[in-house]
Amino acid sequence: MRVLLVGSGGREHALGWKLASSPRVDDLISLPGNPGLSRLGAVVDGISVTDVGAIAAMARVQSVDLVVVGPEAPLAAGVVDAMATLGIPVFGPTRAAARLESSKTFAKEVMTRAGVATAASESFHDPDTARDYLSRRDGPFVVKADGLAAGKGVLVTENRDEATRWSERWLAEGPVVVEDFLDGPEVSVFAVCTDAGAVPLAPARDYKRLHDGDEGPNTGGMGSYSPVADLPAGLTDDAMREVVEPILRQMDEEGSPFRGFLYVGLVLTSEGSKVLEFNVRLGDPETQAVLPRITSDLVDLLEGTAPEWSTDAAVNVVLAAEGYPESPVKGASIRGLDTVPDDVLVFHAGTRSEGKKLLVDGGRVLNVVGLGSSVDEARAKTYEAIQALNFPGMQFRTDIAAQS
Ligand code: GLY
After folding, report:
1. What is residue 151's predicted lDDT score, i.e. its pLDDT?
2. What distance in angstroms lies between residue 148's CA and the mean position of ligand 1's atoms?
3. Ligand 1 neighbourhood includes 286 CB (under 6 angstroms)
4. Whose C-alpha lies nearest to ligand 1, atom 2?
5. pLDDT number for residue 388
6. Do 2-92 and 182-310 have matching folds?
7. Which residues in the chain land under pLDDT 70?
8. What is the number of the ligand 1 atom nearest to the C-alpha of 206?
9. pLDDT number for residue 150
């Protein structure tokens, strides 16, 4: 079969790597892809991932048999609806179902109707009402842009004035949600939702702050690992029964059936686990630590077959550009990739080829993934491989998976 993969980051390289290993996949086409994906098949440049009409037309011209969508923006723009109109099989939610990520207010309302545990929240459309609400609350304050904000729309602060300014800044672009702070460790749980039902993947943990010890600014994610040892027994089964299945039933009842990857961000509070957020796609950088642990076929999984797992653990450390996350510096030359051992995977995220050179071309540049019989062994392999990799200004955390 010929598969079209939409997206260009580390998550998409991991998806493409797994798809290309399937005996069912003859051709992989990535749009727009990256230098890592270009080694696995053709890459198509010049079409925006949100230009759903152009992507659908291209899929038809290329006689694509299956479309797999990595990031949220094309899903929220309706790429699945466009494929369905043309009768092209596609894995992902419709635009209406993607509102579980593209509108935090919608997600909260569906959770309430489905009886799913989450932080209490209020949505606001004007600054005066938001300011008045914040003035009557105690911190920590959690203020979120309602819509997609590429990971930049969330503020957690003890400072009321800062929270108020944040609400005003994002209200200029749409509604904001103010919610109660959930205290506890976070974990990402994933479900593969098909007509055959929902199948869980192994949970993973990611690291959102730039520096060791969870210090510094928020990022798109500086690393991840799987499996996660310090979880309550039965957490995945509980999340399927108490979150995923009620949400799928609710979405069915509301006429927006959800198909695709459902990412459940959970906080393990003293009152039990509660939903922090939904995403309608796999996590980045969690995917890079989860997919290498699956020994069975990814296309079978996308059709609803439960995955088989290796006993290996995986630890993914992100190498980020100088200036990330505020203003990543592009153009530095990346060295040492040819020294990475075969049992360490490197997924490209923000790179560009120029002749024989590989250059930094984004904030998160590479994902280095070591596998081992334990998290500690996988972690040691990852950090050993990183010693041979470098580019000017390279930043990475040294404590990914250190506590497990
Ligand atoms: N790792 C967080 C996310 O993918 O949204």
Report:
1. 78
2. 12
3. yes
4. 283
5. 94
6. no
7. 404
8. 1
9. 83
What's the CATH superfamily of 312-404?
Answer: Phosphoribosylglycinamide synthetase, C-terminal domain (3.90.600.10)
**Three-class secondary structure assignment of the chain:** CEEEEEECCHHHHHHHHHHHCCCCCCEEEEEECCCCHHHCCEECCCCCCCCHHHHHHHHHHCCCCEEEECCHHHHHCCHHHHHHHHCCCEECCCCCCCHHHHCHHHHHHHHHHHCCCECCEEEECCHHHHHHHHHCCCCCEEEEECCCCCCCCEEEECCHHHHHHHHHHHHCCCCEEEECCCCCCEEEEEEEEECCEEEECCCEEECCEEEHHHEEEECCCCEEEECCCCCCCCHHHHHHHHHHHHHHHHHHHCCCCCCEEEEEEEEEECCEEEEEEEECCCCCCCHHHHHHHECCCHHHHHCCCCCCECCCEEEEEEEECCCCCCCCCCCCECECHHHCCCCEEEEECCEEEECCEEEECCCEEEEEEEEECCHHHHHHHHHHHHCCCECCCCECCCCCCCCC
Return the CATH class of domain 182-310.
Answer: alpha beta
| pLDDT value of residue 353 | 97
Residue 279 Cβ inside 6 Å of ligand 1? The answer reads yes
Give residue limits of the domains in the chain: 2-92, 120-179, 182-310, 312-404
CATH architecture of 120-179: 2-Layer Sandwich (3.30)
pLDDT of residue 152: 84
Nearest atom in ligand 1 to the alpha carbon of residue 286 is 1
For domain 2-92, the CATH architecture is 3-Layer(aba) Sandwich (3.40)
